[in-house]
Amino acid sequence: MKIYKSTLRLLSLIVLLFSFVSTQSIANEGVTKDKIVIGGIGALSGPYYLYGELVLNGAEAVFKEAGAINGRTIELQKEDSMCKGEGSIAAAKKVIAEHNPLMLVGFGCSNATLASQSIVLEAGIPSIVAGATNDKITTPNNGLYFRVVMKASEEGAMQANFVSTIPNVKKVAVVTQKDAWGTAKWEGFMSAAKSKGLDVVAVEEMTLDTPDATAQALRMKNANPDAIVTILYPKPTIVFLRSAHQLGLTKLPTIGHTSVSDVKDLAGKVNLPGALDNFYTISLTSFTPGEPEAAKTTAMLKKHLPNEELTQYHLWGVAAGELIVDALKRAGKDLTRQKMVDTLRSTSSFKASPYPAPLSFSKTDHDGYEMGLFTKLKDGKVVKIGTSYK
Amino acid sequence: MLDTSILLVNGIAVGGLYSLLAMGLVIVFKGSGIVNFAHGALFTISAYAAHTLLNLGFSYFLSILFAIIITTLIGMIIERTAFRPLIKTADPLIFKGATVACAFIIIGLIRWRFGGLGDYLSLPPLFSFSPIIVGQFIIPSQQLIIIICVTLIMFIFGAFFTYSGPGRLMQAVAEDSEAAKVVGINVDIIFLWIWGAGSCLGALAGVLMAPVTLIFPDMGLIMLIKAVAAAVVGGFDRLSGAVAGGLLLGLSEVCFGYFVGTQYQDVIGFIVIIFILTFMPRGLFGSKNLSRV
Q: Could you tell me which chain A residue has the CA closest to the CA of B225?
């Protein structure tokens, strides 16, 4: 009986202790005396880890470089969404339940980001989207999601605007993915193409797993376009460009977008000389890895994550990280989630180091970045087409 | 005419690869009575092995050769570890479960080892020369290589099973393993060879496919589905059926995508399967002994 009573007392103590810790943790919203917990959600494994792991690593390097902010260091807790809906839901639930973070960062895939959005919104956690582009993530404004990359419809419109500036180009063929990610870009493109008077002569589809794009390339060739627009993930882009090159279609101006912004990497994977001679793509950043302007960022990444090689995707994370650090500094010592939301909304003309244009948010507009520039590969080097583009 | 030639060449090349994979499935099915769901993972291993060896400085041919050998050995290890210990249960469901488990273990290991190297890895083409133009026909180089290699492999495997001693032993065990045991054939070893032969075909498909598409951990999954589709269409117990099924599937995908619409390209294979199974439940060439489980 004595042992039973002692055990009961001990159990009660443990339960009390856990309740106390739990209550403290919830009350603190991911903030302790010397630490700020930020959750990172993105693909840490699988073929789309570029939009997750690399983006989060970019942000992590910035957090480490920032050191203590108002006496607290940032701790990034990453969870793997695998770029899948079910993975994103599991990652969001886990990171919220285990770490109760002040805010979230990452979200590299639109389909996955939309899948976990209701969980994040229910938990009331402000989130910085550093990779996913689907309009629905921030439109209509849900009050908590802030985006530091261009939204899909604007990117699609930017492709159309660029095509309309190419001399003698009137007829355009489009090859697209018809999922949440691709449809939003496609709709943006079609709307802008119409207003610019472009004639869309072919719209072909591919999926992530289409092994051969001969049918798509042949149908496009028969439509006789003046330019081609691709709205595809990197893998189908590569499969398409290989088939298109076979049929001589790569002699036409071909316009890509941010998912294939690392044009040097793309050229290596397409692995066919001349296939990217007329390929233009959107870059969100004002410099590319390897350029002299990237030296400072490269050094910072190497200092904190020695095994990392700087890529375009790290730069998106760097922009997100710099925005978070700035907001934390401005929010002061008494941090709450609502205070972070208010601070982020008051961000005006914030210059993230990789971007050519500033980031601005407001109460009604949580899409902070609407600019980018076009780049292409020339003699093995990435060259910019103009300074910035909308 | 130009369009037709390109569609035919690409359809035959893609279909030829489906055929190779389907042949590997059929060989193992005929020999051991189970569908090897780890077959797609073996296809993936060969592509990654070739890429790794190439990066280690091996020549292209040696990389491919060693990749095929490594994959064949892994297939044989799967037979010894996942198939052999379970043979006493004689429950097809348990065998299937074991091969599915092997597939996920292999893919998981690949993801763990190669996850940080890049989203998609690229294997350079075996030969890179300009498309061959014969009159109105245009034949892209990589597709031509695939067609030649697939044709050669099919003939070599056909001759091996028909004329060589080990090949005939495998045929004997595949037809009736109990009878083969009675006449003194070491069935255990022959099972191992059968799994080796099946894995070798998967490996060959992997190294031929890799330069056309790209290398990524899940590449075998979609290919496995296509190979199963090809084997089902052709008849799961006929090598010739696997070849016909693969070619039919490849040509259907490319031609349907072109003539009907590219949005239907990825579903046509499955429409063909349902159509054939509705009217010919054993596939185009399946024997009467074939039962569905």
A: A209
